[in-house]
Write a structure and sequence with these properties.
This protein is an alpha/beta fold and 665 residues long. It is built from 22 helices and 19 strands. It has an eight-stranded parallel barrel with strand order 9-10-11-13-14-17-18-19, surrounded by four helices. Strands 2-1-3-5-4-8 form a six-stranded mixed β-sheet.
Length: 665
């Protein structure tokens, strides 16, 4: 499979060849006239030409057939790359994970429908915020200088392009502040990443935190606590980032606490001006976070609003990015996440901006990590459904009200193993072109895989099971984990994920209330486990090859979902039994047995990680610049949240006095 390019475009094709096996004889061929090379008899049975066509627009392309192969016409650099990716996908290649793609043994002939139509992305800015505050793959690759990490960061950029993205951002950490150990190696590493991204056509941003008082992790902070004269310190700290070829700066304001409104607004305006002095033309965005607590409500101009909404009153050049958390969306119940019954205020803010013709972005999540999803572990394709739901409803509102659609869709990504690459793959594809139904995209993702088409209705049904359990029945707090810091935050009246009723509260209930707890919590959790068991049986009936890199990951995910639901149901039932004076030793034994079953699945998944540095991801101790000195899947690997639940219950009953695992830090 030779790919013909002019010398100027050779680098654009090189990254695609790396994904193709030697059996295809893939390679880049430099020629003055790629289209002519494909049209003439010669090397290879499937030949591809990349042809620059400025008339199509920088990010648009058109696929054509030729006598001896195919021609991809498009803008440069992104249009031709998107076209080449589309052509290879039409042959059943899938660019699933930054480190690993799926290439079938025999490439399928592309369907005629992919040819002759100009394709243009539907959302202007599409991409990922890789949350390097967390000890995920991207922290190591993008923040820690080494040749290996640079190669892996470049592969992530390649993957972003192949799936239709055009923007990448990640938060800076405090080890590069003036008082930190800034090193030439970090600057060289980061500059190399950004220059490579620009070569591929990707714009790059970096996130910074404004106020140290709200920085709960090791973020790059502009305003230290106690600073009275902001300008000198802000400009000094921004000068570090001015050494990099940045296109964008993302401002964030922490969680759970706020600043004086006038001080906040003045600081943002000052920071915007300072950014323009040191990085002229850089786009500045601001995350409009969530948190419905007294500490995050302020009164400004006679109105009680969320602290983060003060962005409205800053310079209009700062673009608000409306944030939601976890798999919750803008249009349904948020089940109490961050104290919100729903994110209706954020939805209204987004719609107000769109209706007024002002720039605005949507910034949801495809993983939450901390004690909630992949760290438990849980497989949650509900994320796929809800991210597509948001885009469909936002577009429907735009059509109904006659205003422009969303311009920015940049999602908060926090790890890829346990199937979470599917969430980012989905978001990138749907930001480029939004399909009419979830099932269409699931088929696009899975159909090339052996048994992939049969897996689609199973995953689709799992999504509906999870929607009912986590959105309608509000069970997230019971299947998610709870670490020691979450418990402390709850005591202070602030929390992130939806709450669960405590062991002590259930014990102290009146009998009628405990009966309601069984009906509202324990029984729905048992039903969730039963539903997952039925899906697990359907997967087993497919006879999936255990060596299948992709479907076995889904199978393991559904099995771990069932085990976690059983574990949570046993905990809830035992908690109610404890309150009723019933012996709970059998339930505790059942929970321990479920943990042993889950450990088998976890070990199987660990052996099947896509990332070649998988040992880092589960490391019990892994030094880094982040707050977390371990890999992000450590708690998943050790099933810490499961053991913590069981030990807390056992200790509460007086049966044991074991140390309760903190499951953090």
């Amino acid at each position: 499979m030779p790919i013909y390019v002019t010398m100027d475009h050779q680098a654009l094709a090189d990254a695609f060849v790396r994904d193709l096996p030697a059996s295809l004889s893939a390679g880049v061929r430099v020629t003055a006239d790629p289209a002519a090379a494909v049209a003439s008899p010669g090397e290879g049975s499937t030949r591809i030409a990349l042809v620059e066509d400025a008339s199509l627009g920088a990010e648009s392309y058109q696929l054509e057939t030729a006598s001896e192969g195919f021609v991809v016409r498009g803008g440069v650099p992104l249009g031709v790359q998107y076209g080449l990716a589309h052509l290879l996908e039409a042959m059943d290649v899938r660019f699933f994970h930054p480190q690993e793609s799926f290439v079938p043994a025999v490439l399928r002939a592309p369907d005629a429908s992919v040819f002759g139509t100009v394709v243009t992305p539907e959302i202007d800015q599409r991409g990922l915020h890789l949350h390097t505050i967390h000890p995920i793959e991207a922290l190591f690759d993008f923040w820690e200088p080494s040749e290996e990490h640079l190669r892996d960061a470049e592969r992530t950029i390649d993957w972003l392009v192949k799936n239709g993205g055009n923007f990448l951002t990640y938060p800076a950490l405090n080890n590069v502040l003036p008082e930190g150990p800034i090193q030439d190696a970090w600057l060289e590493h980061t500059r190399a990443i950004m220059e490579y991204a620009h070569l591929r056509g990707i714009r790059v941003g970096m996130g910074i935190q404004i106020f140290q008082g709200a920085s709960l992790q090791r973020a790059f902070v502009l305003v230290p606590t106690g600073t009275t004269d902001l300008r000198p310190i802000v400009e000094e700290r921004l000068s570090i980032l001015a050494m990099l070829p940045l296109d964008s700066i993302q401002l964030s304001f922490g969680e759970f606490s706020g600043e004086d409104p006038d001080a906040f607004i003045a600081a943002i305006d000052l920071v915007y001006d300072a950014i323009q002095r040191v990085l002229p033309g850089a786009r500045v965005t601001a995350t409009v976070h969530v948190g419905n607590f007294p500490s995050t409500r302020v009164t400004y101009m006679g109105e009680m609003i969320l602290y983060y909404f003060l962005v409205r009153f800053t310079t209009p050049e700062v673009v608000p990015w409306i944030h939601t958390t976890m798999y919750f969306d803008l249009f349904e119940s948020a089940a109490g996440a961050y104290g919100h019954e729903e994110f209706d205020e954020h939805r209204a803010y987004l719609f107000d901006q769109l209706e007024a013709g002002r720039p605005v972005g949507y910034h949801p999540e495809t993983a939450y990590w901390v004690a909630f999803d992949n760290s438990v572990p849980l497989y949650l394709p509900l994320y796929l459904r809800n991210r597509m739901l948001d885009l469909r409803e936002i577009r429907a509102h735009a059509i109904a009200n006659g205003h422009a659609d969303l311009e920015d869709h940049v999602v908060f990504s926090s790890g890829w193993e346990w199937g979470y690459w599917q969430n980012d793959w989905t978001v990138l594809h749907t930001s480029f072109h939004l399909p009419d139904t979830d099932e269409i995209l699931l088929h696009e993702m899975l159909d090339p895989l052996p048994h992939g088409p049969e897996m689609v209705p199973i995953v689709s049904d799992l999504i509906e099971v999870q929607r009912r359990a986590f959105i309608d029945q509000r069970l997230s707090g019971y299947t998610g984990g709870r670490d020691a810091t979450f418990h402390l935050g709850e005591l202070m009246g602030v929390y992130s994920q939806p709450l669960r009723v405590s062991i002590e509260a259930v014990h102290d209930m009146m009998p009628a209330d405990r009966a309601s707890y069984r009906t509202d919590v324990a029984e729905p959790l048992a039903a969730l486990a039963t539903d997952c068991m039925a899906l697990e049986a359907r997967v087993a009936a497919l006879g999936i090859d255990p060596n299948d890199r992709w479907l076995s990951e889904i199978a393991d995910g559904i099995e771990i979902d069932r085990l976690r639901a059983q574990h949570a149901a046993a905990l809830a039932t035992a908690t109610a039994d404890y309150g009723d004076g019933v012996d709970i030793a059998p339930q505790l034994a059942a929970m321990e047995a479920l943990e042993a079953e889950a450990a088998v699945v976890v070990a199987r998944r660990r052996a099947g990680f896509h990332d070649p540095d998988g040992d880092e991801l589960v490391a019990d101790r892994r030094p880094s610049a982040s707050l977390y000195q371990y890999g992000y899947l450590r708690e998943a690997d050790q099933l810490c949240y499961w053991r913590r639940d069981r030990i807390e219950l056992s200790n509460a009953t007086g049966m044991t006095s074991l140390r309760v695992p903190g499951c953090v830090l």
